[in-house]
Amino acid sequence: MARLTNLNLSDQVTNELGKAIIDGSYNNETGFPSEAQLCEEYGISRTSVREAVKMLAAKGLISSKPRQGIRIELPEKWNFYDTNVLTWMLASSPSLTVLREFLQMRFAIEPQAAALAAKYGTKEDIAEIGKALEGMRAAAQTPDGDLHKADLEFHTAILQASGNRFFSQLKDFIRTALNVSIQHTTPAKGSNEAIVEEHHKVYIAISEGNVERAKNLMVYLIDEAMTVIEDEIKAQES
Amino acid sequence: MARLTNLNLSDQVTNELGKAIIDGSYNNETGFPSEAQLCEEYGISRTSVREAVKMLAAKGLISSKPRQGIRIELPEKWNFYDTNVLTWMLASSPSLTVLREFLQMRFAIEPQAAALAAKYGTKEDIAEIGKALEGMRAAAQTPDGDLHKADLEFHTAILQASGNRFFSQLKDFIRTALNVSIQHTTPAKGSNEAIVEEHHKVYIAISEGNVERAKNLMVYLIDEAMTVIEDEIKAQES
DNA sequence: TATGAAATATTATAATACAATTGAAGGGAA
DNA sequence: TTCCCTTCAATTGTATTATAATATTTCATA
Predict the structure, then answer these.
(1) Which residues in chain B (19-48) have CB-CB distances under 8 A to chain A?
(2) In terms of CA atoms, which chain B residue is nearest residue A102?
(3) What CATH number is attached to the domain comprising A217?
(4) A100: nearest CA in chain B?
(5) Residues B62 and B132 in one domain
(6) Least C-beta-crowded within 10 Å: which of A14, A226, B74, B145?
(7) Where is the HTH gntR-type domain (chains A, B) (predicted)?
(8) What is the Cα Rg of chain B in Å?
């Protein structure tokens, strides 16, 4: 077990088990270990094991009943919008398929968020988007500026500006999606200015309250990434 | 404490505390009770209290550290895509605002899901949509048929057919959204046939693989509900 | 005042005991 | 045999107690 001493024992075990469940190391055919077995396996008390089990149950990964033991829930019950679950899933299968699923979600969420930001965004929220944009511009002009990080800020600022809890809750989700995205898409270097310019257009549309335009421009932004992925998937299949 | 004897003690306490946290009965100013205090308050052992606390922590509602005690996390950390959290939130504030937020999410998710279903849906998935549609038709023609339930099935079948885990994971979310929606929107009775017909069009578009049309028709479906809500909100404000 | 050490309150972990639940095995009767 | 009932056993559920770890507060000292 990876000893992250800044984490509780139960948190550590939660992590280990979560990863193992999601990557398929455990399954209900071979049988999931009982509490007692987990105690032995990790050399810890039942108290901690139970706390870990409860946390995993809270995330939808497992359930447990007397005499029946601990069972892995069907994957459709897993809460993929939980940051940990998401991380565990990506650790186990960072495939192009997952990346495409991410992009499809971004395609649904972000244009709508941009539209809402244009419609309802407060001055403060929109100022944050502007600040993120400045960060992108600065990073694009500096030799080793972290454009990617600034990009993340821009997109999350828009989610925040939507004024809708369900959208802004997806900040971590989108961050993760963008991070994975970056690892796959070969960065078309040299086009930094173009990237910033496209984001700038989105910002303008939002700050002007141009709902439809904000949405369309965001669609355009994501569509580019989507195209790259679809091509890669096609290349792999053939 | 509501004694739901089919639930664990820790589950019961999780429920009680979850609700109380979300409706604001507890807050960090007045101070959140310590484990010992919770034991007294609910008359249970520390074991159960701790398990409940861990579950709430897993859902992002609280965190706890030695000497510092249990603290409520910022609402932006709360995992609203967790079924329990969602239920607790609705129990505390079933306002029009929440309903609008729900609809905005549906507006983002469902048209895209319909598009994906049209593009990638398997025969089996699409057959399920068709079956749900038949259910709607039957319910619409029967005097006291449950059209609403059949409607739910239709929409969740589309999410399933998207072939994207992140979309199909939102089935419970959308179900809840639809349920709340029904409670608010005065059912424009007499138009049952029209409703079924509109859903039928969506089904046709999906089964024919007509991506754009599927998306647009779904937008239309949700937009109607959205309009009703927006009007209600305006009426309330004035 | 600033620094550091000690006291303290709270969570973190462990060990143990017993209760509750439920699936399976076994035994008796139709 | 087949069905139903009882008994048994394995596993989780709950409680109690004790100790460790941690971080805040207090207080003494330079």
Answers:
(1) 47
(2) B166
(3) 1.20.120.530
(4) B164
(5) no
(6) B74
(7) 7-75
(8) 21
Q: Which of A77, A107, A135 is the last residue of a domain?
A: A77
Sign of CA dihedral A21, A25, A31, A34: negative
What distance in Å separates the CA atoms of residue A49 and residue A13, rounded to the nearest whole number? 7
Within chain A, strands assigned E span: 62-65, 69-72
DSSP B191: -
- Tell me how close the Cα of A135 comes to any Cα of chain B, in angstroms: 24
Footprint of strand D, using CB within 7 A? A 5, 34-36, 46-47, 50, 53, 64-70; B 8-10, 43-48, 51, 65-68
Residue B95 forms contact with A (CB below 8 Å): no
Which residues does chain A have within 8 Å of residue B113's beta carbon, measured at their own beta carbons? Answer: 108
| Structural contact between residues B211 and B195, judged by C-beta atoms closer than 8 angstroms | no
> Would you state the structure tokens that stand for residue A194, as one six-digit string?
């173009």
Q: Hey, of B14, B125, B169, which one would you mutate to test binding to chain A, going by the most A CBs within 10 A of its CB?
A: B169
A40-50 pLDDT tens trace: 999 999 999 99
Q: Is residue A48 part of a domain?
A: yes
The residue with tokens 């593009």 is: B119
Lowest mean pLDDT among A23-32, A150-159, B120-129: A23-32
Better-scored residue on pLDDT, A26 or B95: A26
The domain that holds A52 is classified in CATH as 1.10.10.10
Q: Which residues of chain B have pLDDT under 70?
A: 1-5, 185-190
Whole-complex ipTM: 0.90
Mean pLDDT within A67-90: 94
Answer yes or no: do B68 and B134 share one domain.
no
Domain that holds residue B53: 9-77
Question: Considering the domain boundaries, does residue A183 fall inside one?
Answer: yes
* Tally of domains in chain A: 2
Q: How far apart are CA B234 and CA A150, in angstroms?
A: 38
Residues A152 and A210 in one domain: yes
B86 occurs within a structural domain: no
> What is the per-residue pLDDT for A126?
97
One domain, residues B210 and B135 = yes
What SS3 class is residue B23? Answer: coil
CB contact at 8 A, B154 and B198: no
Strand D nucleotides within 7 Å of a protein CB = 9-18, 20-24
Confidence class of residue A224 from pLDDT cuts 50, 70 and 90?
A: confident
Q: Can you give the pLDDT at residue A226?
A: 85
